[in-house]
C-alpha cells in the first residue's frame, strides 16, 4: 500500500461469486481514487477484527435461498446476532453496505438488510447510504452508481475524521455534521436511483423495448443488438475503464487421457441413475422427467425438503462452436497453463481456483466455465479492444456505456445472450483466450429438490425437472435447452420410460456398467422440513415441479403413520396447479393413493388451460385462486391451530402472487389492514412457519 493511499477494509459474502467479483472490482478501482482496499471474505475471520477496526469498512453481500445468508456469511451473521452483545459494541465502526438480491424473491436482499440493521443496533454508523442491487432487473443499475458515489463518501468521511481528530471537535457538533452528510449522501443516491428508474421507464415505453428512428416516409429504422439509433448513436459515451488483464495463458502438449472426464470436488459423489420416467404426455407444453439415483454406496443422507447440487457440463457442440469461433478448436486437447501476469496492474489478481492444473482446453470449457453467462459490461469493454470493424466497435462501446444501459438490458440481458452469441453477432471481434478466461465465471452446479423420502426409498433419491428450452429470438436464432436439463435428458434417453409406457433394461450381469452416472453434492435446507410436532397441520403450495419436495413430505408422513399408529397427525393440505388435467398433472396417481389412505387430507388442484368458456361456472385457474376459495380453512390452520405453510416453485410469478393473495386473505378474514397482514406474514416467517423453496 502506498503511503499516500488511505486504507479501508473490504469484506464480501458470496454464494456464487457475484459479491466476490464486485468486491474485487471495488478493490481494483480503489487505487485510482487514492485508496487501498484490504479484501477478505466474511468467512476468513482470522484476517480481520471488526471489534478493533478503526478504518472505514465496506461490505458487499448477497442473499441466497429464502432470504438466507450465503454460506460464506452464515457464521458472521450468527456472530453479530448474539444477544449478549451490547448496544455500543460497534460504536467505533463506520461502514457502507452493498446488498445483492433478486426482487423475484419476497425476501429481497434480506441478508444485506439483516447485517445493516444489526450493525446499527450495535452502534455502528453508516458513512454512506446502503445500496440494494436487484438481479431481477440488472445488478449494474445500482452497483455502478453506488461504487461511483463510494469514493466521495470515503473522502468526506476520512476528511471529517481527520478534522475531528485534529480539532477535538465537540461530539454533539460532530454527530450533527455526520448526520447532515449522511442525509446528503442518501439524497444523492436516491435521486440517482430515481433518475435511473425514470430513464428505464421512458426507454420501455416503446413496445419493442428499443428505440426507433424514422429514416424516410414509411420506413422505420429500429435498434437491434448490432445497430443503434438516435439519440444513442449520436451521443458521447461514458464507458467503463478497461479492466486490467491479469492472466498469461500458454497451451502445452496434448493431454493423453480422456480430456472430458470430470475431476470432481471432494464433496461430490458419483451415483448411478437407476431409472428415468417422463411424467407428462407428449403433447404437454413442457416435458417433465423424474430420475431415481442410487446413493446407497455413498455417505449421503437427506430429509424431505433438502436439495442436491448436480454437477453438469456445458453442451459439447456449443463448446466446440465457441472454440472454433476463437480459432483454437484444433488445440482443444492441449493442456492449458495459467499464470498471473507479473506486470499486471490489477490489484486483486489470482488464478481462478475453479480451473484445475493440467486441464485441457476442452475440459475447461466443458466443466469449469459458465459459457452461457450473460457477459457483463466490463467483459464488453474488453471485447472492444479486440474488435476491428469501427461500426461493431462503436456498438459494443454503446452497449457497455452508461447511455446504453437500456439497450444492454433489452438486447443482451433480457434474452440471456452468451459470449458465443455476441461473437457471432460481431464477427470482427477476436478476443484472446486469456480475456475469455478472465471474464467467464465458474460453471455452477444446478440444484434440485429431493422428491422422495429416504425412509420410503432407502438408498435412493428422486429429482424432478422440466426440460428447459430457450426459444429462438432475433439476438439468438437457434433454440437452446437448459445446460443441465438438456444434458440430463440426453444422458437418460437410453433408459427413459415414457408416460404410460414401460422401459426394459437389457439383460446384463451388471446394470451399473451401462446405467448413466452423475456427480451430486448434498445441499441440506436450514428450515424447509416437516414440523417436528407431527400434530401440527401443514399447507403445501406447489404448482408444476414445485410439488417435488411435497412428494417427499407425503412419503415421509405415510411412513410415520405406518410406524406410529397411536401418534396424532395434523391435517395436510396440498394446493397443486398445472396447465392441463390430462397432459401435465404429474404424480396424479400417487396423490390419489395418499388421499385414499388419509396421508393427504385435502387436495386442491387448478388447471390454467382447461377453462370451459361455454359455462358460466368459473373454475380456479391458479393455486392462489384455490387458496382464496379455501381462505377460512387457511386462516384456521395457520392461526387457530398454529400450522405451517410451505411454498415451492417459480419465484417471479407464482410465489409473488401467492404472497399477495395471502395478504388479501389475512386482511379480509382477520379484519386487519394490509400493512398489518404483511406484519402477520413477517411474524410467520420469523417463527419459521412461512417457508419457501423458490427459484427464478
From TrEMBL:
CDD domains per record: methionine_synthase_red (cd06203)
Domain FAD-binding FR-type: 266-531
Cofactor: FAD; FMN
Main enzyme class: oxidoreductase
Domain Flavodoxin-like residues, every copy: 8-151
InterPro entries associated with the record: CysJ-like_FAD-binding, FAD-bd_FR_type, Flavdoxin-like, Flavodoxin/NO_synth, Flavoprot_Pyr_Nucl_cyt_Rdtase, Flavoprotein-like_sf, FNR_nucleotide-bd, NADPH_Cyt_P450_Rdtase_alpha
Enzyme Commission number: 1.16.1.8
Keywords: Amino-acid biosynthesis, FAD, Flavoprotein, FMN, Methionine biosynthesis, NADP, Oxidoreductase, S-adenosyl-L-methionine
PROSITE patterns linked to this entry: FAD_FR, FLAVODOXIN_LIKE
Stated name of the protein: Methionine synthase reductase
Protein's organism: Polypterus senegalus (Senegal bichir)
Underlying gene: Mtrr
Amino acid at each position: 500500500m502506498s503511503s499516500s493511499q488511505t486504507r479501508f477494509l473490504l469484506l464480501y459474502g458470496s454464494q456464487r461469486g457475484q459479491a466476490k467479483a464486485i468486491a474485487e472490482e471495488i478493490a481494483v478501482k480503489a487505487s485510482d481514487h487514492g485508496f487501498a482496499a484490504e479484501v477478505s471474505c466474511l468467512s476468513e475471520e482470522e484476517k480481520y477484527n471488526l471489534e478493533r477496526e478503526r478504518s472505514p469498512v465496506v461490505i458487499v453481500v448477497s442473499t441466497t435461498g429464502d432470504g438466507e445468508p450465503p454460506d460464506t456469511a452464515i457464521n458472521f451473521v450468527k456472530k453479530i446476532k448474539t444477544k449478549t452483545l451490547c448496544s455500543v459494541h460497534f460504536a467505533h465502526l463506520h461502514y457502507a453496505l452493498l446488498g445483492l438480491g433478486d426482487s423475484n424473491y419476497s425476501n429481497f436482499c434480506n441478508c444485506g438488510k439483516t447485517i445493516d440493521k444489526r450493525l446499527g443496533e450495535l452502534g455502528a454508523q453508516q458513512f454512506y447510504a446502503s445500496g440494494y442491487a436487484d438481479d431481477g432487473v440488472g445488478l449494474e443499475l445500482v452497483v455502478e452508481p453506488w461504487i461511483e458515489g463510494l469514493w466521495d463518501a470515503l473522502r468526506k468521511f476520512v476528511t471529517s475524521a481527520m478534522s475531528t481528530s485534529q480539532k477535538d471537535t465537540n461530539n454533539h457538533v460532530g454527530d450533527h455534521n455526520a448526520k447532515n452528510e449522511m442525509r446528503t449522501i442518501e439524497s444523492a443516491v436516491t435521486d440517482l436511483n430515481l433518475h435511473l428508474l425514470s430513464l428505464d421507464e421512458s426507454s420501455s415505453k416503446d413496445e419493442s423495448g428499443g428505440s426507433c428512428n424514422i429514416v424516410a416516409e414509411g420506413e422505420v429504422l429500429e435498434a437491434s443488438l448490432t445497430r443503434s439509433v438516435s439519440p444513442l448513436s449520436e451521443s458521447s459515451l461514458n464507458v467503463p475503464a478497461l479492466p486490467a488483464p491479469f492472466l498469461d495463458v500458454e497451451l502445452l502438449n496434448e493431454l493423453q487421457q480422456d480430456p472430458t472426464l470430470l475431476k470432481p470436488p471432494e464433496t461430490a459423489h458419483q451415483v448411478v441413475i437407476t431409472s428415468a420416467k417422463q411424467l407428462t404426455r407428449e403433447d404437454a407444453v413442457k416435458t417433465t422427467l423424474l430420475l431415481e439415483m442410487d446413493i446407497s454406496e455413498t455417505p449421503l443422507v437427506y430429509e424431505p425438503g433438502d436439495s442436491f447440487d448436480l454437477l453438469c457440463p456445458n453442451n459439447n457442440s456449443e463448446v466446440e462452436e465457441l472454440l472454433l469461433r476463437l480459432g483454437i478448436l484444433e488445440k482443444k486437447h492441449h493442456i492449458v497453463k495459467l499464470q498471473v501476469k507479473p506486470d499486471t496492474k490489477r490489484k486483486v489478481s489470482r488464478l481462478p481456483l475453479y480451473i484445475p492444473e493440467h486441464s485441457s482446453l476442452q475440459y475447461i470449457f466443458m466443466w469449469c466455465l459458465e459459457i452461457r453467462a450473460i457477459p457483463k459490461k466490463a467483459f464488453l469493454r474488453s471485447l472492444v479492444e479486440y474488435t476491428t470493424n469501427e461500426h461493431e466497435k462503436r456498438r459494443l462501446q454503446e452497449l457497455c456505456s452508461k447511455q446504453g444501459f437500456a439497450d444492454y438490458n433489452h438486447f443482451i440481458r433480457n434474452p440471456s445472450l452468451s459470449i458465443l452469441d455476441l461473437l457471432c453477432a460481431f464477427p470482427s471481434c477476436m478476443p484472446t483466450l486469456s480475456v475469455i478466461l478472465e471474464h467467464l465465471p465458474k460453471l455452477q452446479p444446478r440444484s434440485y429438490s429431493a422428491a422422495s423420502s429416504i425412509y420410503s426409498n432407502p438408498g435412493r433419491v428422486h429429482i424432478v425437472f422440466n426440460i428447459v428450452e430457450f426459444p429462438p429470438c432475433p439476438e439468438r436464432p437457434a433454440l437452446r435447452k437448459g445446460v443441465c436439463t438438456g444434458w440430463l435428458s440426453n444422458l437418460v434417453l437410453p433408459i427413459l420410460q415414457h408416460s404410460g409406457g414401460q422401459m426394459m433394461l437389457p439383460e446384463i450381469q451388471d446394470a451399473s456398467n451401462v446405467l448413466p452416472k452423475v456427480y451430486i453434492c448434498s445441499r441440506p435446507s436450514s428450515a424447509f422440513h416437516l414440523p417436528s410436532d407431527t400434530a401440527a397441520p401443514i399447507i403445501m403450495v406447489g404448482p408444476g415441479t414445485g410439488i417435488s419436495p411435497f412428494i417427499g413430505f407425503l412419503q415421509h408422513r405415510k411412513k410415520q403413520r405406518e410406524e406410529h399408529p397411536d401418534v396424532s397427525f395434523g391435517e395436510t393440505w396440498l394446493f397443486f396447479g398445472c396447465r392441463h388435467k390430462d397432459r401435465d398433472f404429474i404424480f396424479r396417481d400417487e396423490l390419489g393413493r395418499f388421499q385414499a389412505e388419509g396421508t393427504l387430507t385435502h387436495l386442491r388442484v387448478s388447471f390454467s388451460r382447461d377453462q370451459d368458456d361455454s359455462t358460466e361456472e368459473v373454475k380456479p385457474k391458479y393455486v392462489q385462486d384455490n387458496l382464496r376459495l379455501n381462505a377460512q380453512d387457511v386462516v384456521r390452520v395457520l392461526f387457530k391451530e398454529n400450522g405451517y405453510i410451505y411454498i415451492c416453485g417459480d419465484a417471479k410469478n407464482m410465489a409473488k402472487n401467492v404472497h399477495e393473495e395471502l395478504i388479501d386473505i389475512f386482511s379480509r378474514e382477520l379484519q386487519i389492514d394490509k400493512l398489518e397482514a404483511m406484519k402477520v406474514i413477517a411474524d410467520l416467517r420469523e417463527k419459521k412457519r412461512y417457508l419457501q423453496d423458490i427459484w427464478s
